[in-house]
Amino acid sequence: MTTGDAIVVPELYSGYPGVAFGGYVAGVLAQRSGARTVRVDFRGPVPVERPVRLAGTADGGVELGEPERPLAAARPAELPLDAPAAPSWDQAAAAAERFRAAPPSGVVDCFGCGLRAADRGLRVYCAPVPGLDLVASAWTPSPAFADPDGLLPTALVWGALDCPGNWAGRFLGTQRPGAVTAALTGTVLRPVSTGEPYISYAWLLSESGRKHTMGAALATADGELCAVSEALWIDPRPAS
User: Fold this and answer.
1) Which superkingdom (predicted)?
2) CB within 8 A of 89, min separation 6: which ones?
3) What residues does 188 pair with on adjacent strands?
4) In this predicted model, what pLDDT tens digit does every residue of 55-77 receive, in sequence order?
C-alpha cells in the first residue's frame, strides 16, 4: 500500500467499551499488508465508529493512526511456533460449557469472548482442559459473518486467535483481569468455513512481571491446523 486510507471499526467489533477488538484490528492490518505471516504491535486503543488513518510503510507494513501518534502497526514477520496437538472436540466442548456456565471474573462485552448472541460475536469461550496445559473452546463460526463464499473473513479468523491467549494467561498463569493485547503475530494456513466445527485453543509460553506470552491455534474438529499465533499481553498498571 502506497497511498493513505482510513478505516472505521464498527461498534459491533468492540473489545472493551468504546475500544476496537484487538484481534479484528490485527486481522484487518494483516490482510491489508498482504504478507502470509504478520506481527501487529498495539501502541494505543483504537476507537470504534471513528475514521482512523491507515497507511503503508516503507518496510512493507501498515500503520494505523496519525504518524505522530500511531495506534497500531503491522509488518511481515516469521512465526517459529510449534503448536501442540489440539484437544478433542468433546474436551473443547466441555471446556466451553464450563466457561458459559460459570463465566470467570473479568468477562466483558467483547466481540471475541463476550456472552453475546451468535450473530453479534464470535463466542470463543476458552477454559482449561483437564490433564492438558491448555485452554480450549469448541467453536462454530456463525453464518451471520460469512463472506459470499461462506468463509469467515480473515479479520475474524484473527479474532478467534486473540481472546484464547487472554484466558490462557488468566487460567494457566498469573495474568490479571483488564490486561490488553500488546502484540499479536499470526498466520492463516487454510480457509475457515462458517457453520463448520472448529477448536480454538491456547497455551502459556512465558511470563515476566506484567508481560505474558501465549501461543494460540485454530484447528478443525479433526485437529488439522487452520491458523496459529503468538501474543504478548500486558497487565494493567497497579493502582497507586
Assistant:
1) Bacteria
2) 138, 197, 199, 221
3) 227
4) 988 888 999 999 888 999 999 99
